[in-house]
Amino acid sequence: MRLNQNVLLLGKKVVLVPYTSLHVPRYHEWMKSEELRRLTASEPLTLEQEYAMQCSWREDTDKCTFIVMDAEKWQAQPGTTEESCMAGDVNLFLTDLGDPSLGEIEVMIAEPDCRGKGFGTEAVLMMMSYGVTKLGLTKFEAKIGQGNEPSIRMFQKLHFEQVAVSSVFQEVTLRLMMSEPERQWLLEQTSHVEERPYRDG
User: Fold this and answer.
1) What are the two backbone dihedrals, phi and then psi, of residue 3, each rounded to the nearest 5 degrees?
2) Residue 183 in 3-state DSSP?
3) How many CB atoms lie within 10 A of CB 21?
4) 141 phi and psi, to 5 degrees?
């Protein structure tokens, strides 16, 4: 999505930056993991396919992607490269043509030493806030593999409620409707987030 291609969101634990070609090699290494591919229902891609995917995601109007950075490492720059700060990614898919106010959200914390630190929670809150304030979203869905208990629990803590279970796809669908109290809660949870212009690298 071109809307966020120059946007950096600075949180307490994570920094969200647009997915650029600089991030592809590390992302490609992550996706060699069978466990991550299973959890994200992803197919293995070659490096060239991954670069093509990154380009298409930047151009697609129905996908908003940020790379999740470890804020502590990122703020230690310029001593560290941006690639070495990468922790995962967070995505919004605006694929329901009948309902442009609905976004499907997913998050992946790929670096093992970044898990269990609240990175995924803050990244999801920041992405939902961006979706509400910049994209006009009022509903969010998360589709999670039935075996991915940590992710299911995280979304439930963020007020998502289970609305469907698919035994065929072995996934759970959770939904959050942004009522006014939920919107206020979300904006309070992300009031510390600072938006800055993004420059590659």
Assistant:
1) -55, -35
2) helix
3) 12
4) -125, 145
The owner of tokens 């992607």 is 65
Residue 48: half-sphere exposure toward Cβ, Cα within 13 Å: 0
**Cβ atoms 143, 171 nearer than 8 A:** yes
Could you report the per-residue pLDDT of 123-170, keeping only the tens digit for each? 999 999 999 999 999 999 999 988 889 999 999 999 999 999 999 988
Handedness of CA 157, 167, 96, 38 (dihedral sign): positive
How many of the other CB atoms lie within 10 Å of CB of 115? 14
Pairing of β 161-166 and β 86-93: unpaired
User: Per the confidence metrics, is the pTM higher than 0.70?
Assistant: yes
Structure tokens at 108: 């992946």
